[in-house]
Amino acid sequence: MFYGASFMKKISTIILIILAALVGLYFLWSAQGRTAVAEEPDLYLDDVSSFGVDSGSGNLVAMQTYMQPQDYASAGAYYAKLDGYMAQAQVQDWLHPDTIVVFPEWIGTWLVLANEKEQLYEAETLEEGMQFLVLSDLLAFVQSYTEAQGNNKIRDALFRMKADIIAQIHQETFSDLAQKYGVTIVSGSLILPEPQVVDGELLPGEGELQNIAPVFHPDGTLDPALSRKMFPTGDEGEFVEAVEAGQLPFYTTPAGELAVLICADSWYPESYATLVDEALEIIVVPNNFISDVGWNAVWQGYDPGPGPADVDQADIGSITEGEARLKYTLAHRMQDSGAITGMHVFFRGNIWDLVSHGHTIIFTDGGFIEASAEARGAVINYWLPA
Question: Burial of 289 by CB count in 10 Å (0-12 exposed, 13-18 middle, 19+ buried)?
């Protein structure tokens, strides 16, 4: 049986109408439910402690933030959460022109969740959340996927897709906080494609993803130099570029010359070799330690291995993760750079089923100081020696 041209034309028209309706319904669904409900943020603040004596030389303040997906729902939610921790330090009179405030690694990375549908923040697992993120931003994801680099193109595409939003919210938030409280802020870290600072603005590029730590001065300006992670860990290395070890930037602050090592970089002697300078006084390390077990887990060695030559292979599988951090990071290597004070600051919280562990550790010439290991959120002050 044969159908006439007019009949086939009608069928084609009906199919196009149905497809157009489905596309319209998808865009309507995608656009709905993206207005985040403003809620009073819970800081989970279990520890507010101070160490040392005010000698007039300035101080370091660790912001151990306890973050959840809803804290990234909007620029307002992000600002309110971080400002809550800053306000706690202000109440203690710890914020001064010669104060350096340090936030943890990946604090800005999860802005990939900003401005999404409400259901996203209610997901139970990372996989479920990422699938929903792809589905609700399908066209943008497909476009970013065609530009993705690295081994894990799905993760690359997700961060590339939201790069402009991530950079904008992060910069506006920390610029406002630095200016509001009149302090230097090491704004943790975030992941962006080949980022640069152009005319004071943090701008994503088109190259591979990098893990960076922007520093903001007390007047709210963004320092033009970005510290970039040189040694991404195993999973991270699938979509984040390992930046060549080069001369890391120094930041001149009212509290002294500062350098920033991002998480795993603090484990490698090559990082400190780039920092040798008679003027260097302070090294801070924003960290994010994701683990199902936690601080007391048996240390499995460097990820990826094999690690530096000075590592005692007998320690692998016999000491804890916490013991390894005390033995092979700042305490072991800081003196090679000339710095006299160091601080680890950890991301805490639950981003779906990703659980982050760790606590603030301060390293000095006389040894080290550990803040509460049980605390979720914490604000820890350390007065720099004269």
Answer: buried
Cβ pair 346, 263 in contact under 8 A:
no
Q: How many residues does the chain have?
A: 386
Domain 36-383 coded CATH 3.60.110.10: yes
Which residue, 160, 221, 158, 157, is CA-closest to 187? 221
Give CA–CA dist 247/226, Å, rounded.
Answer: 11
* Rg value, the chain, Cα: 23
Alpha carbon distance 339, 146 (integer Å): 44
The domain spans of the chain are 1-32, 36-383
- Beta-carbon contacts of residue 146 (< 8 Å; ≥ 6 apart): none
Report d(CA 107, CA 195) in Å as an integer.
Answer: 17
Confidence (pLDDT) at 30:
55
Write out the two tokens for 191: 């992941």
Structure tokens at 105: 């690694």
pLDDT of residue 134: 87
**Inter-residue contact 152 to 238 (CB < 8 Å):** yes
For residue range 211-253, what is the model confidence (pLDDT) as tens digits? 999 999 999 999 999 999 999 998 899 999 999 877 789 999 9
Neighbours of 22 (CB within 10 A): 10
